[in-house]
Design a protein that fits this description.
PDZ; metal-binding; metalloendopeptidase activity; Pdz3 Domain; metalloprotease; 346 residues
Length: 346
């Protein structure tokens, strides 16, 4: 890539970094607010990782920006071991600690819903209703009509147009069982997609054009909830594929891929960037609730087990486990970053 191209794209790269930083700040803000509400002393609020670039000292919290624009954290008193101070995280009731830990991912889900809703209310969205049928395409030949609503495909509930596209993509041209709502009557169809070649790629189509609606903001938020739910299902669907060994290295991207994509989307305009931020916000929430040490999910698992058993785990041991988990995550991040450079997804 020439220096001229890099210079031209600097504004979009900066926009991408700022967008990602907003998501991280929002996530950490969730932890911060709930920590304060639960009477826990917050020692540090940092955006980024690595060496501190600059910081501001508040009344009791140090607010820092660090060198690497990846991640961030809220450091609470007594988070890493035993502490006698009553304001320490370790000395709060399990349910209070659970609200603090869960707040970050919950904030990310809320932000995704708001961002999706904002985009939908301004631009409209595609819904799985049949607005138009392509002549001589499979859908019209099996009897699907304009106005039909797609409610199920291959026994998977369809709430969004994205849900339908995912089923079609996973099906690889095989026949699809559809359930259609036609004015309250549920009708079943079996449809075989038509294979077409387009710009050197094979695509499978059924000849259905979705309906475009421009909802009120309230309805847009409802659609935002559905889209967020759809994103969660797709992500865990990918985890299932990866567990079965059906995912390839090209399906996985790390920080470099995210920044590349964010920069490209920023170049496309503000609304595409906001939509992409919503998608990444969902991914951040899901990543953080995985039951792994140092992640929010690891803490959530420990706290739930403590609430069930009524026994408190040794805080020093938990702190050491979280430290090891943090180092493992850093190592994985380095490996994924190297993979991004050597085998880029885009």
């Amino acid at each position: 890539m020439s220096l001229e191209i890099i210079v031209k794209n600097i504004p979009f790269i900066i926009m991408g970094l700022l967008a990602f930083s907003v998501l991280v700040i929002w996530h950490e803000l969730g932890h911060f607010i709930l920590a304060k509400l639960n009477g826990v002393k917050v020692e540090e609020f940092s955006v980024g990782m690595g060496k501190k670039i600059f910081g501001v000292n508040g009344k009791e919290t140090e607010y820092n920006v660090r060198m690497l624009p990846i991640g961030g954290y809220v450091k609470m008193l007594g988070e890493e071991g035993e502490c006698k101070d009553e304001r320490a995280f370790a000395n709060k009731a399990n349910w209070r600690r659970l609200t603090i830990v869960a707040a970050g991912p919950i904030f990310n889900f809320i932000l995704a819903i708001l961002l999706f809703g904002m985009v939908y209310s301004l631009t409209g969205t595609l819904v799985p209703n049949v607005a138009e049928l392509t002549k001589d395409a499979p859908a019209i030949s099996v009897g699907i009509k304009e106005g039909d609503k797609i409610i199920e495909a291959n026994e998977k509930k369809i709430n969004t147009w994205t849900d339908f596209l995912v089923v079609m993509s996973d099906n690889k041209g095989e026949s699809v069982d559809l359930k259609i709502d036609r004015e309250g009557e549920i009708i079943e169809f079996n449809i075989v997609p038509k294979e077409i070649e387009e710009e050197g790629r094979t695509r499978y189509i059924v000849g259905i054009a979705p309906e475009v609606i421009k909802p009120s903001f309230g309805k847009a938020l409802e659609l935002g909830v559905k889209e967020t739910k759809s994103m969660v299902q797709q992500t865990f669907g990918f985890f299932g594929k990866a567990f079965k060994g059906k995912a390839s290295k090209d399906d996985v991207g790390g920080p470099v891929t995210i920044f590349k994509l964010t920069g490209r989307v920023a170049k496309a305009g503000l609304l595409p960037l906001i939509n992409f931020m919503a998608i990444i916000s969902v991914q951040l929430a899901i990543f953080n609730i995985l039951p792994f040490p140092a992640l929010d999910g690891g803490w959530i698992l420990i706290l739930i087990l403590q609430m069930i058993t009524g026994k408190k785990f040794n805080e020093d041991i938990v702190g050491k486990i979280n430290y090891i988990g943090f180092m493992v995550l850093l190592g994985l991040m380095v490996l994924v970053t190297i993979k991004d450079v050597l085998y880029p997804v885009i």
